[in-house]
Write a structure and sequence with these properties.
By secondary structure, this protein is an alpha+beta fold. Helix content is 62%, strand content 20%.
């Protein structure tokens, strides 16, 4: 009886072991790679799956995208500058069979491949290029790594450079260079401002000179117009005066005596001139004759009045 209980107990344990080894549950995002007698058999999708106990062996592979941040490592650039670089690699298993059977440990393989690729890419560019072309570096790293990882059944989705740290003396030199560049930009901006200010002042002076010239031109035009109008009015006044005098003389029926008096009046005006020389017209004999006639007339007036 005790032997029967022992055998029954061993049968129950064996059945539990068989159930445990034959029924497996695969979680979402994972797949199971089944090996039968050591050889690849099949790939099982998420869910419940059944295995042949003691014959099948299943290994679970994570099919999700996995970020891996490598350790910081020192690389040498093309211009012989040592920089510390750290990168994050986003990889994903796309073929679990290749990931398990083409490389012994794809986690370590991807990490080591990223290290060698980082050294190769940074060794082909200068420090300035490495600091200013992170997108190009990421693209080159991804392209070179995919050429190797494709045969491992692993896809490199993207690579991000986390840090690029040059030596301390290089950082100090870059800071001095940045300060010099900023001072240069400030000097250029200041000179451009002074230039623009001088241009604005010159333009203002030019506009002021133009306005002044236009004002003087308008003033000269107005003065000339005033002088012209004055001369016209003066000429018209003289013409009217001459016409009036001529009409009066003509209406008075002048004789030789009146003409002589007018000529003498003109001579008296010549005599009052401040000039040092007096020019006597050639008609002096006529004037003298006219004067004698006037004198005889004037002498006859008292004689007639005494009578």
């Amino acid at each position: 009886m005790p032997a029967t209980l022992i055998i029954f107990f061993f049968l129950i344990v064996f059945a539990l072991i068989v159930v445990f080894r034959s029924v497996r549950v695969i979680q979402q995002g994972l797949v199971g790679v089944v090996k039968r007698l050591g050889q690849f058999h099949s790939v099982r999708n998420p869910g419940i799956t059944f295995l042949v106990p003691f014959i099948d062996n299943m290994e679970v592979v994570d099919m999700r995208e996995t970020p891996r941040t490598g350790d910081r490592q020192d690389v040498i650039t093309k211009d012989n500058v040592s920089v510390a670089v750290n990168a994050t690699i986003f990889s994903q298993v796309v073929d679990p069979r290749l990931a398990l059977f083409q490389v012994s440990n794809y986690f370590i393989a991807v990490d080591q491949l990223s290290r060698t690729t980082l050294r190769a890419v940074f060794g082909s560019m200068s420090l300035d290029e490495a600091l200013s072309q992170r997108e190009q570096i990421n693209a080159q790293l991804q392209m070179q790594m995919e050429q190797v990882t494709d045969k491992w059944g692993i896809r490199i989705n993207r690579i991000e450079i986390v840090d690029i740290v040059p030596p301390q003396q290089i950082l100090m030199a870059m800071a001095l260079q940045k300060q010099a560049d900023q001072e240069k930009r400030a000097a250029i901006l200041q000179s451009e401002g002074q230039q623009q200010s001088a241009i604005n002042v010159a333009e203002g002076q030019k506009q002021a000179a133009i306005k002044t010239a236009e004002g003087e031109k308008a003033s000269n035009i107005l003065r000339a117009e005033g002088r012209r109008q004055a001369q016209i009015l003066e000429a018209e006044g003289r013409g009217q005066a001459i016409n009036t005098v001529y009409a009066a003389i003509h209406a008075g029926n002048p004789g030789p005596e009146l003409v002589a008096i007018l000529q003498l009046d003109t001579l008296s005006k010549f005599a009052e001139s401040p000039n040092s020389k007096l020019v006597v017209p050639v008609e002096t004999s006529g004037l003298l004759g006219a004067a004698q006639a006037i004198r005889s007339v004037l002498d006859g007036v008292p004689a007639a009045s005494s009578k």
